[in-house]
Amino acid sequence: MKMEELRSIRRELHQIPELGFQEFKTQRYLLDYIASLPQERLRIVTWKTGILVFVEGRKPKRTIGYRADMDGLPIQEKTGYAFSSQHEGKMHACGHDFHMTIALGLLTYFAKHPVNDHLLFVFQPAEEGPGGALPLLQSEEFQRMKPDLMIALHIAPEYPVGTIAVKEGLLFANTSELFIDLKGKGGHAAYPHTANDMVVAASHLIVQLQSIVARNVDPLDSAVVTVGKITGGTRQNIIAADSRIEGTIRTLSASSMDHVKQRIEAVVAGIETSFACQATIDYGANYYQVYNHPAVTNEFMAFLKKEHPSALYECKEAMTGEDFGYMLKEIPGFMFWLGVECEHGLHHEQLMPNEAAIEVAVSTLISYIEWKALQ
Ligand SMILES: CC(=O)N[C@@H](CCC[C@H](N)C(=O)O)C(=O)O
């Protein structure tokens, strides 16, 4: 498959970002493309807005799974691309347009050049939230074709184009979303003593949340509590009766996650007392850590060292999250970072990954899967 074709697929997908479980146009686009491939060995099944494509092997010993996520983010794009998002306020700012394009590049090749093993291509909705991997993993559709090995990648703006950054064991953190609603008493701006101001309460809460990582987590462990959004109040001269904080928690272990959550609950209880308000905490979607199977990952790294030595970089773990962690909890496999060297990072309104990385990923993964299917 030519680079120009892959690039135009990526650009078409880039224009239609959709949020989790709303990937209707994306699913249609993928299904139409998949229908244009030789069908003899393909079995295509939809699951919600996702798609599973089974490619029948020639002399199967196992099924090798490859997963790409499909959803975009609620971000107003500011790249200035001629092929910018056509969906107001939504953007592929986490590279899922790249992930799907690479999966289609692989599928196109293997539909025409089947290997001995069966392959399963998983186009998964809702990675950014509320999480599609776990319900997809548990679905009858997936369980019927369940792979013996799972592979996925994530673009990485910080690495040179084509770098494959990977390690055995922990790659991505445990994550939990965090939503805290505060309810107090509104009033006139000139009469603060008659009200309970939830803008002030939220401000204290945000500052106190920062003390959890600084003062309650072992400095030799790591955790993150980020508040990404605050809302509250109605107007400049009205004391706010309500406020809402939206954030995320990241930890390197499940036990640290429990500890951070206990501390958040204690801090929130303190705010309720000191500001005479009611607070509710909702942890939203929780993702299990991405833990790369040591033997399978080392085998992949040894393959790269031999066949593509300049691509391999042994990286450290990161505080990003990925619901692919649920798949790796049940199925041996690995995830890796794909270098797409660009100025702005993931979740940035000007994320402009270098498209040359697509071809590198497709050709490297073709050679790895062809080799693996002979083992
Ligand atoms: C690779 C990446 O950026 N993943 C997301 C996963 C989102 C998890 C969830 N919605 C949360 O915010 O906790 C990330 O933000 O790391």
Topology:
Layout: H1 3-14, H2 24-35, E1 42-47, E2 50-55, E3 63-69, H3 96-112, E4 118-124, H4 133-138, H5 140-144, E5 149-156, E6 164-166, E7 169-172, E8 174-183, E9 187-188, H6 198-216, E10 223-232, E11 238-239, E12 242-251, H7 254-275, E13 278-282, E14 286-287, E15 290-292, H8 294-307, E16 312-314, H9 324-330, E17 333-339, H10 356-372
Parallel strand pairs: 3-4, 3-5, 5-17, 6-16
Antiparallel strand pairs: 1-2, 2-4, 6-17, 7-15, 8-12, 8-13, 8-14, 9-11, 10-12
Fold and architecture overview:
This protein is an alpha+beta fold. It folds into two domains: 3-171 and 289-372, 3-Layer(aba) Sandwich (Aminopeptidase), CATH 3.40.630; 174-286, Alpha-Beta Plaits (2-Layer Sandwich), CATH 3.30.70.360. Helix content is 35%, strand content 25%. The protein contains ten helices and 17 strands. It has helices spanning 3-14, 24-35, 96-112, 133-138, 140-144, 198-216, 254-275, 294-307, 324-330, 356-372, and strands at 42-47, 50-55, 63-69, 118-124, 149-156, 164-166, 169-172, 174-183, 187-188, 223-232, 238-239, 242-251, 278-282, 286-287, 290-292, 312-314, 333-339. The strands form four sheets. Strands 1-2-4-3-5-17-6-16 form an eight-stranded mixed β-sheet, sandwiched between helices. Strands 8, 10, 12, 13 and 14 form a five-stranded antiparallel β-sheet that branches. Strand 1 and strand 2 form a beta hairpin. Helix 3 crosses helix 10 (356-372). The two termini are 26 Å apart. The ligand CC(=O)N[C@@H](CCC[C@H](N)C(=O)O)C(=O)O binds next to strand 8.
